[in-house]
Amino acid sequence: MANHKLDFRDKPINLNERGGRKWVYAKKPSGKWFTRRTIFSYFMLLFFAGAPFIRIKGNPLILLDVANQKFIIFGAIFWAQDTFILALLMLSFVLFIVLFTVTFGRLWCGWACPQTIFLEMVFRKIEYLIEGDYRARHKLDNSPWTTNKIFKKTLKHGIFILISIAMTNTFLMWFIGSDGWVELITSPVQENWSGFIVMLLVSAFFYWVYSFFREQICTMVCPYGRMQGVLLDSKTIMVTYDYRRGEPRGASGNGDCTDCKQCISVCPTGIDIRNGTQLECINCTACIDQCNKIMHVTGKAPGLIRYASEASITGGHTKIWNARNRAYSMVLLIIFSFFVYTLVTRPVIETTILRTPGLLYQDHEKAISNVYNIKIVNKTHNEMPLEIKLISHNGNIRMAGNKMTIKDQGMFESTFLLFIPKDEIKSDKTEVEFGIYSNNELIETYKTTFVGP
């Protein structure tokens, strides 16, 4: 970047010299890449809002029921007992993010992150509609409080509040399901004050983030931007300024960059992409569209700012795959394959049988008895009639209740007495094994202890 002085920053771009907030007034973007991103964002918004209503065999597409320790992810049901499988799924997701970042940079941030989608495609568009483009908004914010300003600010923030409440209720359905949400909002408020207050607090948080905090979530809070420092390399594809072609910049220079600073004017985080990769860059492509417009006006080829890697600019390296992302891909494939294997081979039910705490054995005339608590989780979509038998010893089981039938994805909990003849008790602690049967077919076994004299 010859003949051009770079400013090396030691603070976020949206802070002034005294450490105060410097508001970013981004110009309304437009162009080929913005149109693509808009279409993709609308599909993502439909997914966020519609996922709780989509059903697979009667179950929501995604349900994160933390209270009941039940999780449904793309139709697959996970319970608290499936912690290991969930851990494999989360590890696979983290590795996918790492692989994706190593290969394509912060493409997630600019295209699929809910923070970016809601801010750029919902809240900013409303702001543009009511207050105008960046110059009009800057003028309005710095003007005295007139009737026109009060009307526009009240209208904008009123709509922002309504959208924040709608967002809270939408994401609430991801945790309690659409049916639970309908039941919640149709119940009198006095019956669920705690839930109502939580809804207001979360809505207030969303309103504060998208009305005031905005891009600072990406530049100061989100750790993903700081991960770039260890994940990106010279072969990573990201939004990049071609300095070999653009420098020296300016109208009198020989480079293609006219130094018009239009790429800065549209950046939602306010950075100068010409200064290289920065943690604030979310790869939103607004600067690509704006620069291509200037190139068209000046009669120069587009692509001065484009998706490219440092290696492709300096040496013409255009291959996406290299040893690093191949290694990540292999590890991801192994772990995800292990996840699929454990998911497919997991038992259809999950049984837990434990001696009732605080109770000793009972001595009968010819037998010894222990009291047990039993919990069985049905991981299938079918109702299952069950029967429990002692398969390690001769014994008798007396269940509290006559039927052991579990509804699809349901849970059965009960208590039973186990009687074992005295002549089969050889020590004060004996290992016993139970069999869980469905339609006379053994589907699971469970071992526990039996205490005696």
Give your account of this protein's structure.
With 453 residues, the chain is an alpha+beta fold. It has three domains: 32-228, no CATH class; 235-317, no CATH class; 349-451, Immunoglobulin-like (Sandwich). Helix content is 43%, strand content 20%. The chain is built from 14 helices and 17 strands. Strand 4 and strand 5 (76-79) form a beta hairpin. Helix 1 (32-50) packs across helix 4 and helix 2 (83-104) packs antiparallel against helix 14 (323-345). The mean pLDDT is 88.
Write the layout of secondary structure elements.
Layout lengths: L31 H19 L4 E2 L2 E2 L1 E4 L4 E4 L2 E4 L3 H22 L2 H5 L2 H18 L2 H8 L5 H40 L6 H21 L2 H6 L2 H8 L6 E4 L1 H4 L15 H4 L20 H13 L6 E4 L1 H6 L7 H23 L3 E7 L6 E2 L3 E12 L5 E2 L1 E4 L5 E4 L5 E2 L4 E11 L7 E10 L2 E11 L2
Antiparallel strand pairs: 1-2, 3-4, 4-5, 6-7, 8-10, 9-10, 10-15, 11-14, 12-16, 13-15, 16-17
Protein name: Cytochrome c oxidase accessory protein CcoG
GO molecular function: 4 iron, 4 sulfur cluster binding; metal ion binding
Keywords: 4Fe-4S, Electron transport, Iron, Iron-sulfur, Membrane, Metal-binding, Transmembrane, Transmembrane helix, Transport
